[in-house]
User: What shape does this take?
Amino acid sequence: MVMSGEKAGDGNGSGSVAGAAGEGVRGQEEPAAPPRVSLRERKKQLTYRAISDAAIAMFLERGFDKVSVAEVAAAADISKPTLFRYFPAKEDLALHRFADHEDEAARVVGGREPGESPLDALRRHFLAGLDRRDPVTGLCDAPQVLAFHRLLYGTPSLVARLYAYQGRSEAALARALGGGVTARLAAGQVIAVLRILAEENWRRIDAGESADAVYAGAVQAAEEAFVQLRRGLEPEGRAAL
Assistant: This one.
């Protein structure tokens, strides 16, 4: 597992903390150009969004369990078989908004600055999310976000499905950390911490506090959480995370 300033993916196959520390930090690399998205792919993404938006609007109005897949398909002007080609399960219609975040932690680690450790990059990214009131951090009191979170956390099947998304987040982060059991253990801890921080922020906002009022406490909790992570993932005498 690569948990020092060394970036994963150098092809040496070791993936260990000691190996990364021994090799040192690589020089800055040229940033990769963003991949071109074809017209077909853009249309597909727009279709995903349109179907999901139609479904969420119906779920918010009537409740998740009271809306059938057939009704969503009709509202989106597609057939049920076509809908299921885009969304394997009804729950995915609501959780599509989380799809772009599945590999977010992995992307943060993979795109960190030269010499920046994975934990430092993840901490910086989460604190920046709190500052801009990113809904993924739970620190957002916009009415539409509040309504969506109440739908999500108030529907057991959606909460259960969300754990599958988080499992894929763990897997992606583990790969970014070099792979192997140690990387998987670290990724599981990181994703769990991010989830708990977001849920606590959401809990306070749902209880009536504003995002601005929660902000200072959210920052303090995040700082303490990353200190705990660092202590747990950086035993004395091991390379820095």
